[in-house]
Amino acid sequence: MDLLVGVTSPTTQNAESNQLDDMRREAETNALRIIQAKLEKPENLEKLDQLRTAAAQRKRVLDEQLRTAVQSQLESIKTGIAQLQISLDNMKTVERTMRETDEKLQKIAPLQSKLEDLRHEANTYRQLSLAQANLDYIIKTPENVKKADDLMGQEKLLQAHQLIMEIENSRNYLLFELHKVQEKDSQPDDIQLVTNYFADYERLVAHLKQLITFRISRWYDCAISAPEKLVTALRLIEREEQVDRFWMEKKELSGFSPPDRPRQWKKLCFELLRKSVKDRIEGNQLETREEHKYWLTRHLEMCRIIILQDFTIITKTCLRCFPKQYDIVNRFLDYYHNCLKEHLTEICDPKRRTEGDTLTTAEVYTIVTFVRDYQGAECLGKPELKLDISQLSPLLEKDILAAVTDVFINERKQKFTEWIPNIVTSEVKDWYALKEVELTSEHYYATTMPRMLINMIIETLDMAKQMSDETCQLILGMILQKINEFRDLYVAEINNYAKRYFSDRQ
């Protein structure tokens, strides 16, 4: 309790004393009220001893609880005061230490100007040590250029690339040092001097790029005959990507980047792959309509064969040659699909064709059936390939496919329009011809007109069915319309024949 002495003011103590007196009086009043309620009847006086005992026990319990609560509060207060005292001591220690540190810093500050020369000498020493470390590489640059040329001539691209990187590191070191000097003093002549000294380096890089481009462009042949050459080219591309990332990060920190970075050879690789796919699809069109009637059928069949052959190589060999992150199977699937889509769109789009260069019925039939079977088991859907074709877009957009289908429907409609009058005319000529009517084996009169008409209908419906159900429905509606026209024309000719026949009898 001694710790609480002096903590509160006299005014606060008086207020607390008055509050305690009020609480005591209130407790006495409540006690009298309770006793009066329990001893209201005379027979309750017999229980007076029991009530005293119970009240005494309750008082002891409450006193114990109060004592425990007060003791707990006192312990917490003692702990808090001790921690406050420790914090106060720590603050005094920190204040004293900071004051001493300020005094020492005041003595050290004048040394900064005195050490400026030492700092300059340290920077000079660091630069000279780096120059000495790179001096051997700089001096050996002409020799390394010759070695790199010889290695690339022997198609040892990995070793050649290592020498090229040594030359590049030497050049970049010099350019970086000049970049730091330029922040204070511009020296364009020095940069030009370095550029001229490493001119052969740029030629080596261009030659290496040419060799890698050749291998990537001929990925199919490399994958079959020399997959190690394809792997080497891809390894070099990945090395260059790492160097590109290094210099991009370096530029963010220092503001310096070599003049030929980033090279982005990975992006170039993907562009070459897509171009090679486009060339393989468009390059197998060896004939035109003037040269062969079924040029388009032969061309699309060759496309199908090439796609199957290529994806057999892609899924078996290229998958092991290309890095996993390239996702090369799906990438090639996207390239082949989009290039073939562009090629077919160019062939089918009416906006790109002249009036006299429209597609024929046979060509339309070939295109539509190819589009239908494109994702089937005879092409991309072949089970052995295990290609994910669920995300591919339609090979022909709806408007292009509708335009192609309209060509077929209009051509068939035109054919029926020409055939039906000719069939009826031929039949009418037979009526008026002075010759015996043909008989069947059962001695019935026979005519070839129904068979000709049925063959026309069956042939047209078979072609439409091979194209699509929607086309088949449109063709069927057109045929029914033309059959009604045939019926009207045929009935009219029969009536004319009957009138002439009966007029002759009269």
UniProtKB/TrEMBL annotation:
A GO molecular-function annotation: SNARE binding
Gene3D superfamilies according to UniProt: 1.10.357.50
GO CC term, one of those recorded: exocyst
Domain of life: Eukaryota
Protein name (record): Exocyst complex component 3
Native species: Adineta steineri
Pfam families attached to this UniProt entry: Sec6 (PF06046)
GO biological process: exocyst localization; exocytosis
Cross-referenced InterPro entries: EXOC3/Sec6
